[in-house]
Every structure is written in structure tokens, then in C-alpha cells.
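Fold this sequence, please.
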Amino acid sequence: MSAAFAPIRAFQWDLARQVERLDWLLAQLPRYADWGYQELHLHLEDAVHYPSLPGVARRDAYSYAQFTRLVNEATRVGLKVVPIVNLLGHTQYLIKVPELRDLNELRAADGSPIPGGQICPLHPRTLEIAEKLLHDMAPFCTAGKVHVGLDESFQLGQHPLSKAEIARIGLAAHFAGHVKRLHALTGSMGLRMGMWADMLYFLPDAIPLLPADIIAYEWYYYGFPRRPRVELYNFAESGLGERLRARGMTVWGCPMNGSARYEPMPHFTDRMENILSWWRHGAKLGTEGLLISSWEPFRLAMELTTVVDAAAATLWLNPGVTDPKEMMTRGFARVFGRSSAKKAASVALASDRYPFGGYPRWQINERWDTVSRREPLAPFLAEERFCRLAAGKSPKGHNALPAPLRASLEFRHYLAVRDVFVRRAAQGLASKAEAKLFAKALVAGRRAARAMWRFTRDRRKRGANELILANDAQRFRAWQEGKPVFGSRWQLCYKVKDFAPALHLVAVEQQQSDGTWLSQQECLTIEFQTRAAQPHGTMVREHAAPVSWDNARDPLPHLRIVVRGIGQVMVGDVVLTDGSTLLRARGSKSVRWRRLGEAAPKAGLPPLAWDVNRGVLELHF
């Protein structure tokens, strides 16, 4: 690694998913400055009031005066600010406004805009709206630049205006045209433009068409040995950074500090590996900056992502220290003090052995009837024991675990207790004593979830985890009253091997009396873990779907397993069961695994259509 590597050091707050209390944010700014950070990127969407577009901001958004105060304090402590104003993908914050809905790229059969989607680059009002948003944010661009997003714009090219231009000049030039118009707009305001680089994976022909002074923020959120990978290409290695540098463009590397969707804690080992990978890659590539990004932290205690940022600062505060445990220890020390730092780092890293990760695990947050009745309990019992001990290891006194970590472990323990109880109840084995223990766990889980939220957020509101607990309590009461919270008597159980990870989901459909197919259960396969972000996957997950059947052998239910999205999976060990009787699909004994789906592409912008079956396995019992 080059000894001269000294990137601009930046961190990001995702305020678009939930607002943090202004007093808490203000208190963090001097700390980040002390840790050697130089820039603050703010992902906003509708979390701030735009004077020129008063209908965009949500109810709890920061006022213009509050936002001014935040930026002024950042300036006072030496942090430059870069607002992120999404202007292609992730523009639902605009489309939700009835007066702006016509901006939508997506149209109904009659040509009217549908409620969800992304803005059309060629809509007559797009540049007008972009100019208003950027004009309102320009006073806060104290780093002399603005970030316009443009990531994950998979619905590109579906508006009639877009289709016509693409037919004439191609998709890459269509995308590049939008970038150049935004570049001219930001330039007229005296601002340099930044954008996420991921669309250039899929549209590399756009690269030579782009202005060379654009800042490309390349993001990838897993550890990697040589180069970042492209999820939609079955995690193929990417040389995008090298191509952008050859074009003369400025490149930033962007790891991530938090967790994914329903995870209540960051996977700290993965976070450190991700940051270290970008640090090494940046030194080789000559990246200008390192942005520790943050996404969707609304299920976390925000202070734990702050610990990851503080741990990352070890790379420049303590050059040569790259051991993840030592970095985490220093991160906890910087945020919470030295007395408990070593113990906190040890417990946090140990928790990574039992991540509450992956959509098959998360389905229980939404419904209990997809919990497999045949799944062995032993792994869940081991997980519950670990979480119980980890949550209970916080002694009183000067070396107690930091409160946000302790509350997160307590909430994680509730999830582990729920995993065991719901599976026992689904099998008809849960006793009154077990029900009593679960009721007690619900109380403790609610207390922990409330604490995680209230450390940094509006205490008058309920957080996302508390809403999960409220739904769990409702299902628990229904179960106590003998109501069918686990669906029908019969259940289809099957395993999914994610042997070629990309971006797909697996669903079970049941044919209705009129011949139509009704989805009974569907689940994305993406895992958000470094060990699963590989071209050759080894993850095997148990899935289950409720099946409507009155137990009459004639006719048996007509079922099928389908794959949608991008890529292939293996499906096997398929049984229809009521807990005691097992009916195997014909042919499933001779062929344990069936490959479903289509191979992930190696180039181009993949069509992400979640309502199209890319592979079908008909089941006959």
C-alpha cells in the first residue's frame, strides 16, 4: 500500500429513512471532526423542507432553519457538507406528491402515471423540479459539490419519451444525456457534481460520454480480496474503478457502516472487512475519497453505526493498525470511553456468529405461517442461549457494556426467544410455561426496542422494531385464543440453495379453481453477508408456505415453485406435511436438487421484473 495514500475522509447520515434528533446530531459533529473526518454527506429525500417545493417534505422533516443550524455547526467544527439530492432512482419522495406524480417513468395501460416508480429523465418538468431542489440545497453545499444520486435506476427507459430516445440513440446515451443535463445545471450553480457509480456497471458505454470532472462514488458493501463485485452479475469482479480512472474521472470508494433491512445490529466483522477492503483498493486505485456510508439505520441503535465510523478512523489516526478487533476496541473507546471498550468489542464481534440476517429469517416479522414446522430446533436453541448470555453479561459499574449495545443485545435475545417459541407453537408443542416465558420476553423485547429508538430519536414516536413487537403481541394473543395464526393445516416445506447468488426471489404458487395461480409465499434470497456475496454460494435456507387443502386426497393441491428476478437457485427436499404425514413430490427422491431460473447476465442492464416467473417447478404429489 502506498504510504502517500491520504483520501478525503467522509461519513454519511441517512436521514431519509428516519430523522435523528437534531440535538443528538449536533453533539456528534465535534466528535467526528476530532476523529479526523473532513466531510459529511447527507442523504435526505423528503427529510428536509424545500422552500421551492413545499409539498415534498414529510411531517417530521427538518425545517430549513434546523437544517441551517446543522450545516452551520458542521462548518464551525471544520466539516464540509455534501447534500445528496436523488434525481433519478429513489425518487419516490417526489412521485408521492400528487402534483408531481406525472414525473413518473412508469405508466398504467391508459398512459397515466402509477403511484410508485422513479422520475423520467425526459419529462418536460424534470429539469425544472431538479433546479428547485438543487437551488434550495445549494447554500448547504459547503464542500463546493452536490451529490445527485442516480443509483439503482432499474426502471430506466419505460416512459414513452424514454423509449423513443433509446430507440434512436441507445440506453447508455439516454442515461448519459440525463447526467450531462444535471451536470450543466449543477455547474451553473458553481457546484461540482457527484453520482453513485453503479449504473455504469450496466451501461459502460456511457462512461466516455460523461463529463470528466464528475465525481463517481463506487459502492460495494462486502469484503473483497481484489476488486468490488457486481451483485446482478452473480458477483463478478468489476474493473469499473480502473475504467473511470482511465477516463480521467475522480473516484471515491464507499463501504457501509450498518446493517441491512431487519438486522437489529451491524455485522461488525463484515463492516470492518468491507472498510479495510476499500482502504486497500483505494490505495491501489488512487481514489480521492473514502465515504463511510450509512443506510436504513431505523432498526438499529444509531450509536452502533457511530462506533463503526469511529473504528474506521483508526486507519488514519493509528496508521498500521488493521486488526478488526483492535479497530473495534478503539471505536468503542472513542464513542463510549475506554473502561468497557475491550469487553464491548469482544461481545459485539462474538454476536456476528449469530446474525439475524436474510429474508428467510425476516419473514417471521411479517407472518408466522411461513415458519417451517419441520426445521430442527437445535440451531435456534443454541442461538437463544448465546444471545441470553451475551445480553446478560453486562455487569454494573464502571465497565458495564454501553447502553446502546446492551439494549441491542436484549432485543436480539427477544428475536431468538421468538424463533424458538414460534417454531414450537407451529408444531403444536408449546406448553403453558413456554407461553408464559414468551409473554415475559415480549415485555423485555418491547423495552429494549424502545430504548434503541429513544437514544437518538423522537421519544414520542414508536420505532420500526416496536411495531414488529406490537404485531407479535397481536399474533400471540390470537394463538392463545386458538385462532389460526399458522395458516392452514398443511404446509409446503422446501430448501433453497443459493448456489449462484444474484438478485432473485423464490415463491410458492397454488392453482385456484378458476385456473389462476395465487402466491402463497415469496422470499428474496439475498443475504447481505460477505460469506454469501460470492459467485459460488453455499447458503441453504429452509422455506415454507401455507397450503389451502381440506385433506381430501382427491384432488390434491396443485402447487408450483417459481423463481423471479435475476439469476438461478437450486430447490430441493420438497414435502407437503401436516406435521405428522409427509407427502413427497413425485420424482423428488431421484433428483434432490432442481435448478431454477436463468443464468445471471454478464453485461447490460438486467430487466428487474418481479412479476415474471423465470423458472417453474411443477409439483405433483
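The radius of gyration is 25 Å. The mean pLDDT is 95.
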